[in-house]
Amino acid sequence: MSVYDQGLDKCAANYAPLTPSTFLQRAARVYADRTAVVHGDLRRDYASLYVRCRRLASALRQQGIGEGDTVSVIAPNTPEMLEMHFGVPMSQGVLNTINTRLDPAAIAFMLEFAEAKVLFVDRQFAELAKQSLDRMTARPLVIGIDDVLEPEGEVIGEMDYEAFIATGDPEFDWQEPADEWQAISLNFTSGTTGNPKGVVYHHRGAYLNAMSAIIAFDLGNSPTYLWTVPMFHCNGWCCPWAVTAAGGMHVCLRKVDPALIYELINKHNVSHMCGAPTVLNMILNAPEAVRRELPSGGVSISSGGAAPPSAVISGMQKLGFNVAHLYGLTESYGPSHWCEWQPDWDDLDASGKSQKLARQGVPCLTITDHAVLDPETGQILPEDGQTLGELVMRGNTLMKGYLKNPSATEEAFAGGWFHTGDLAVMHPDFYAEIKDRSKDIIISGGENISSLEVEELLYQHPEIMEAAVVARPDDNWGETPCAFVCLKERAGRSLTADALIDWCRARMAHFKCPKTVVFGPLPKTSTGKIQKFVLRERAEQLAASDV
Amino acid sequence: MSVYDQGLDKCAANYAPLTPSTFLQRAARVYADRTAVVHGDLRRDYASLYVRCRRLASALRQQGIGEGDTVSVIAPNTPEMLEMHFGVPMSQGVLNTINTRLDPAAIAFMLEFAEAKVLFVDRQFAELAKQSLDRMTARPLVIGIDDVLEPEGEVIGEMDYEAFIATGDPEFDWQEPADEWQAISLNFTSGTTGNPKGVVYHHRGAYLNAMSAIIAFDLGNSPTYLWTVPMFHCNGWCCPWAVTAAGGMHVCLRKVDPALIYELINKHNVSHMCGAPTVLNMILNAPEAVRRELPSGGVSISSGGAAPPSAVISGMQKLGFNVAHLYGLTESYGPSHWCEWQPDWDDLDASGKSQKLARQGVPCLTITDHAVLDPETGQILPEDGQTLGELVMRGNTLMKGYLKNPSATEEAFAGGWFHTGDLAVMHPDFYAEIKDRSKDIIISGGENISSLEVEELLYQHPEIMEAAVVARPDDNWGETPCAFVCLKERAGRSLTADALIDWCRARMAHFKCPKTVVFGPLPKTSTGKIQKFVLRERAEQLAASDV
């Protein structure tokens, strides 16, 4: 034992378990009168937000909520949803935000699996919640949220949210968790097969990812943040905590609607927002009539979930949005990577810039390492921008693990790496580029085809708004690329499947070009991700009906 | 035990002890070709910097350095000094940077107290080191640093730095500390009485304070940082780590010289720098001939150590510097507070702005709380901007404690707070304002006089460059204010003591005005702090000679 270990222990003065709840406490004092939340005509300052969160935490304690107790919520991005992100952790409970697009069977499964003690329900989702609760044996305490901006639905439950928090102490003396490794939230993956997995976050990781987000998003001092990413998705990429730490203004948004987005950006001088590429696409293709002038400094928009096609990036930049590209998974608290801009990229032409920016990029400060592994041998593959393998990473902002699923946790963390399940190459400059989800690779005549590469080309076609490519089973080739395409709404134009295939063949190796093209709207998840598993089913049906 | 504690443990994939060494590892990959260090004509990129630090760590390991072993260094802000901040922690050793202005007796005491195993010595300080070593019984391994920019002094020791690191492995597989609470560095306080205390930092705190510094200094992406704060002072406020994390360029500086500062700012487009108010004053009062144009975006200068007088702040802003005001102590890894700008201050007039900015401000994100306590009762005093007490704080960026000094550690952390020893008021907006060090309060005729308040007035006098006020013992009043004043160099002007006292009496309560004025240069520490204890001695001599 060295002299540096003697009489130099942790004490109340020099050690506090890391928790993002301290960011709100600080904000309530440093930014007391500053507007914390905007929702329609509603404005609340940081002092009020903190009081409401303390009341919520206190009311939950009175209902017996403590360490390891799950508090679930079905709500869009409202002030109450933001309050949950502080009030529940301050009660020592675990926040479980539920995807509002799920069906009652899935929600009932999650609530039972999480052993939810309390369920908060926004009135819009009253019917969904009732049907879910009807399937359960152990019913949680239900609290209805009556949002002034929501005319539909019923306020259900034993009590209404306002009445509930009124039972709490506005000066509640909340405590940091005894251990920063304590669970703070539970996020179910949108797993396309089988039952969803429950991803558990801890206080330390939420704190660190929020710090990292302030730096990566360059939030600066007092940003204005528009809530386009659902908070039920990876806790809104930790932005409830990050934006609060930065003393920012949270502009709530119940629904991702381009007209409303333009209106709120213009009205509140939004400085930052995030969204899936589909959200970018929606903004880019909004009718002229709903577009509004952007703030003079532009709007930073961080896009994650999938690589935004380069045509979308350049289109957004022309409109005055500064597009950043992030990457992450539910298991990594949202963003684990960002495509950090390098000064020498300034000299590239537009296409060169887009190519750089289309890559998922480098790990955030809180991720200590990443690599691309050979799926067979587990060895690190060369950083040559060519060799395809599985992207893995390690660090301090990766989940505790999957709830009640030790085998899945062990598999995810095998060999001391978190396995993303994404196929990527590592470039010589240490930037990772996802080529596909393992299951999204199309193998045609023994050749691997990246569906992302085909999609990237399709997005360059002037008449295409959205496109997704999946494998269609084929007796001859094994699989062939099948493109699902949604065209822009313009009168007097029509693109045929054959014309589009020819257009592709003029620009890409023939074996990679779609053999089938289907026109129409694309199915999406609530977070704007295109549901490729639905398209894969359709492609299989097409193949079956051809036989 | 809840379900959230079962099968959800730490593993190599989801947990890594926090250490700032990971910032360099990341920078070497993400910013490999970017210039990391500039020193005269020397340029090194991040890949090279990392290789040199790995060599250094490896060479230290070969000399037997491991956990809890002290590695000391006497050097100014050179590339080698920066390398120490990574190489020593990567070897598991503890970095002990020594103030170059100390005398041999003090340095010998520190080296023996710290049980230094290795001592690195820049050639400029060879004589100082030799005299220090001569006083020691257990002599450490001495390595001389031969800096090309230093023509004076001898390269002493068993080996030269370049030869030493050449013995190390450039691919050394360094390890994170087993525990993030492990000591990373040892900084002696410049204690004005008795032996200095050894402040011990840990890896976790250094990591967190660096993250906080990136946010507080708004370093952004690829800042250019000029090294005006000595790295031997609180490890350069954690900027060796923060600037590296941000992929910034370190511009080294052996000596705080206004001509050189202007030249380097202009040549390298410096974006950020830090310094004591004296450094600001030096820049502000530099002769016209040495001034150079600043970069178009201005230069962010964060000032700490003492409140910069408002005349200095406004003068610097006129020159194109954006002045931020920080506060901290050796015990808080440098900055614990910053005077965060509030948007509504934009509407204040110049004097209103200066008043706001003169306050020490609010805690950084990593400090969880602060307060002003009644020194007698230990109770929290009202936040009224009036009631004077001791500023205290708690959080994750406060030292492990004082080395081999459990009683001082216990006293510093009494009651779950770190006691700063600074007298402050807490304003209703949660901003702290230091009125004085406990020992800097002048008690005259039973009235408390803040020496800072008198100094603030003196700095407004157009002919005064620097001023410091201390207590002069007085048989009648107990104490009276004694002003030491350094005038600006202007031909044909002369200010008398009587004229200055009259000028003060026209502007301030008479009992607060200096009764004695002494003209001449002010004694300073190596970090630019005015040495009030020297002035107090002079004031005592003046009083004694009057009797």
Protein architecture, described:
Chain A is α/β, with parallel strands linked by helices. Chain A folds into three domains: 195 residues, 3-Layer(aba) Sandwich (Rossmann fold), CATH 3.40.50; 174 residues, 3-Layer(aba) Sandwich (Rossmann fold), CATH 3.40.50; 102 residues, 2-Layer Sandwich (GMP Synthetase, Chain A, domain 3). The first copy, chain A, has 17 helices and 26 strands. A nine-stranded mixed β-sheet of chain A has the order 2-1-11-10-12-13-14-15-16, with helices on both faces. An eight-stranded mixed β-sheet of chain A has the order 7-6-5-3-4-8-9-19, sandwiched between helices. In chain A, strands 17-18-20-21 form a four-stranded antiparallel β-sheet. In chain A, strand 5, helix 5 and strand 6 form a beta-alpha-beta unit. Chain A is globular. Chain A starts with 20 loop residues before the first helix and ends with a helix.
Work out the oligomeric state of the chains in this entry: homodimer
What is the molecular shape of chain A? globular
Structural class of chain A: alpha/beta
CATH architecture label name of the largest domain in chain A: 3-Layer(aba) Sandwich
Could you describe the largest sheet of chain A, including whether it forms a barrel?
Answer: 9 strands, mixed
Mean pLDDT of chain A, rounded to whole units? 92
Give me the CATH fold name of the largest domain in chain A: Rossmann fold
Q: What number of domains of chain A?
A: 3
